[in-house]
Structure formats: C-alpha cells, structure tokens
User: What shape does this take?
Amino acid sequence: MNVRAPLLAVCLALLAVAPVPVSAAAMDDFVAAQKAHARELAGQDRLADALAVWRTLLPLGRPDGETSAAIAELERTIAARVKSLESRARQAYSSGRSGDGDTYMLKILALQPGHADALKRLRRSQSVVARRQQQEKSDNEYRTALRAAPSTGSHSAPLADPPGEDSPYVQLLALEERGDYAAMLTMADQVDTSDADSAHLLRGAHTALAQDAERRGDLVGALEHLEAAMLLRPLSDDPLVTRCAELRGRLSTDWYRKGAQLINSDLPGAIAALEKAVSYNPYNNNARRKLDQAHTLQRNLERIEGRD
Amino acid sequence: MPSVVRYLLALSLLAVAACAPSPTRDPTMADMDVVAKDERYALVRLQRNQDFTDLAHVFLGHRNEDWQIREVNADQSARSGQIVAVPLQPVNSSSVYTDGYRTLPILCYHQFSAGEATHQLELSAADFEAQLLYLKRNRYRFLSFAEVEQIMLHGRPIPERAVVVTIDDGYRSVYDVAWPLLKKHGVKATLFNYTDFIGAPAAMTWDQMREMADSGLVEIESHAKSHTSLSRQPSDASESVYLARLREEIRGANRAFERHLGSAPRFLSYPYGNSSTEASEMARKEGMALAATVTRGRNPSFADPYLLHRTMIYDDHDLADFEKMLQTFKPRRLK
Assistant: This one.
C-alpha cells in the first residue's frame, strides 16, 4: 500500500492554506527598501513624496534614529520652503503678477498637499478665468438674443417693455454694433443711460476701450476704463477686480523703478514717482521702503541746507 | 483502496479546494494580515494570490485605487509574504506633484443612434461603444459626480486615470441606445435631464430614469426645468426678474425630481452650458454641490465647483481626437 502520494498531497495542500508565516526578513526587506526609496526621492527634491515614504515606517513603533532624523529634517525643510513661497506669492499677487503667484501656490501644494490657503487662492484664480469665459459667452448670447427678440419667434419671452427706436438704449446698441465705443461714452455723458440694459452695454464699451488702451501701452487709461466699467454695473466677484489689480501692480512697479532711478539725481521727482507707486499699490513694500529712504534723504538735505 | 488512503485523498482534495482562488469572491478585511497600523498607514503582509488591487479594494474602497498604494511603496512586485504600506488617508489630497498636477476630464454627450449619426450632437452606437472600449482598455476609471464632489469639496485625490461620462437633455435614445452599452461595459454615467422634456415622445420617461438609477451605474441630475439659458436674457427686465427666473428654473426642476424620484438632485448642468455669476450663486443657494458648463478645459482639484469644464463629444470626432480630449495631467515644473 502506497500512502506516500496522498500524504504528500495533504502536506502540500495544508501548506497552501496555512497563513504566510511571519518573517523577520520580509520586514527587514520592507524597511530597507522604504528607506532607500525615501532617500532617493529626497535626492530628487521630491520632498513630500520622501516624507510620505519615511512615514510608512512609523506604524512599526518607536522609529530608529535615522528615520526620526530624516522625518524631522524633511518637515523643517518643507516648512521653511512653504514659508518662503508664501511670502513670494503674496508679493506676486500684490504687484499684479497673478500667474507667478499661482505658480508659487502650486509649488506649495507640491510640498504640502492640501495646504488650505494655496487651494483657496488657486480656486479663486480658476474661478476668475472661468467666470470671465462665461461672462464673454453670456454677453454674446445676450446681444444675439436682443437682435433676435423683436423679429423671431425665439423661445425667450418677449421684452416686457420694448425700448423705442430712438431710445438711448437702442442708439447705444447701434453704436456698439459699429464698434464705436467712444461715441457710446460721449452719448452717456449727454443723455440718461442709467437703466440696467444701457449700463450693461456701457460696461462692455469701457471694457473694450480698456483693452485698446492696454494694447497701446496706456495702462492708466486702461485702468480708468476698467474702474468705470465696474462702477456702471457692479457684479459680485467681478472678474474686472483682478484685471484692475494687475494693472495697478504693473503701474506701481513702473513708478517704483522710475523713483529708484531718480533718487540720486532728482529727489523731488523720485518722491513724486514713489508716492505714485504706493498709491497704485499700497502693498508695494519695496516702494514704501524706497519712499521712506527718499524722505530721510530729503530731511537730511534740508538740515544741511538749513545749517548753510 | 484502504480507508486511510481514501481519507487522506479526500482531505487533500478539500484542502486544495479551500486554497483555490475563488473567481467571484472579493477579499474582505478578514483576509488581510495587518502587522502594524497607525493613523496614516497600515502595514499588511500579502497573502498568496493577493496583490495591490486586493488591498485597494479592502482599504480604499476600489481596486483601481491601487495607485495610492504604489505611490508609497518601493517594492512594487506584490510577492506573497511581502510587507506593503497602505495609506489610510489620502497622501496627496490636492493631486499636485513636483512635475505637474492631475486633472479630470468630463465628457459631455447628447444623443445616440442605432445606425449612422444624423447630426453633430448624435453619436452612433458603434462610435460610443468604441469610445467606451478605448477607455476600458486603457484602464480609465469612470467616476460618478458624487465622486467628483468628494474630489472637489472633500479632499479626495483625483485618481490616476479618471474620466466622467455625462449625457445632457434626456433624449429617449439615451435609454434605447446608450444605456444597454453602459450596462454591458459596467460604465458609470451622469445624466442631466431637464424636467419639462421628460415624458415627451423624443424623451425618456420617469420610469426609465428610475430603472437606470436603480442599477447604481447612473445618476440622474438636473439640467434645470425648461432648458432656457441661465445667462441673462433681454426678458430679464431687472435684476429681480432675472434672479426669480433662475430660482424657478432650478427649484422647479428640483420639485419634479423630488416628486418622481424621491430626492432632489445635487448636481446641475447649465442649459447650453451657459452660466453667470448670478446663476452659479443661485445653484449654490438652491443646494447644488457642483455645476458644469460646456466650456472645454481642465478640472484640477482646485477647479471652481460651480463652473466645471466639460468637453462636448461630436459625431465627427474620431478616436484620435477623443484621445486628445482625455487630459488627465498638466505637466508643470513645480520644484
């Protein structure tokens, strides 16, 4: 009787269903591989990834010296870099360089996933762009609907009070269709265009003129038109707010550069330029410091001249 | 045959049967050998026939979440007895990395035809199935809008290759043509229907919508009431008239959904994809968690939840065009 074959089968089968035995070697392999991987990631400057991998060793209990030191060092480095990026982002946003500000915020998220302020700020930037796209689409649709409303059986309800042929609104519309935005503003100075529909058209005119001015390099003109557009038809979370802030930032930077150049040759001119820089962007700290420096110079000069 | 041999043979057969992998049974927590754990990670010893997708299924709720496990483990071989770290909370909730960030493509379909498509917004069954198969072959993960809400509002990371299928309007062809294909391939989809259309000859019925929703594959959500644009119209004589119209468009649809399906929708797709500051705000006030346009663009984890971008799929798109629309990562140097 040969019972060896079934016995072997039983042994093999029991081995197969038995749980995988605890192996110290498997754990050692895991720890060694994770440490090497974490060091490699840190070497590639992928600090958040490196930190995540080091932290996989923490469930094992009290971490060894190398693990504790690596985690502490990474946490310190990440915190310092995030702090520096936050400061650079603030400067970028306050000087109207939103794109740079967003890049700093993305870098913060790459270092510290889930960073609440960075997410909030990036979401705001995304919203501004998406709202602008929607506003443009909506403006186009509105204009199309206006043209279609009197003559076609559009599914839109008819106008409650169709404006008369010679109403300011209809005249504004005609001017807008010709692209004569300047004439629209002249007309607004002469007749009552305070109704909501006219205000909408005038806002569009100011926005178009602002774009023209910006293309010509006339930032002051562009800013004036955008601010006038916002006053005409204020919107909550108005996308023009960001565009105004960007222009203010650029103007502030331009005046700051001019003031810094003049400080050794034309002190009153430098002070006037730096005051403009601060008035366009009160958060321009470089301009503020330079202005303080110019005032100090001026006082010293006055004191010297007084002695003479 | 001696009884002892018979007994040993039977025993071995039983043991072999016990250890054979069951093709239908998913692993459970009882099958997991957790050797250590803290609030961030569980360290699990892999058993025979287990791989990272099994751990993802048990700990992270879905097999396709295995990428989260791969991200934190040096050894990707998934050997029996290997120790594997499983993250118990998202390691990178914002999905931004040093080389760029993940984005979520949301596809927007309208009508379907059994044969050739007859207009741009209609897709033939064959083309639709080819697109679904492309996504499946390339291991895309289909997300529901409820999952998108988790990503946009609750810090869940964007999966490695994720895509959202949405179908607007509620045409009958969705039920007749698209639904059998969604079922056949187990694809999740979100239907945005406008309630004035439901029950019309060319539209789906409430019963058909209920049947689809009950499958768990399909979400039925709002496309407002009458499909008029929610951007400002000449008929909106004043701000208050405009706001009242917006409210009624969203609320009216919600009432119909509650009456027929038992619950109000949580997601909105703007008719024609048109929104405005006021429309987004109204969607939020009326309890919508997310709202979508049809403006093409990327959806990172920090997208505006009330102006999500979607990509319209047209009949004249071939598979190469389709592939280009599936942008799941925006490369940026962020070191």
In short: Confidence is low (pLDDT under 50) at residues 14-23 of chain B. The two ends of chain B are 74 Å apart (CA to CA). The longest strand of chain B covers residues 162-169. Residues 24-87 of chain B form one domain.
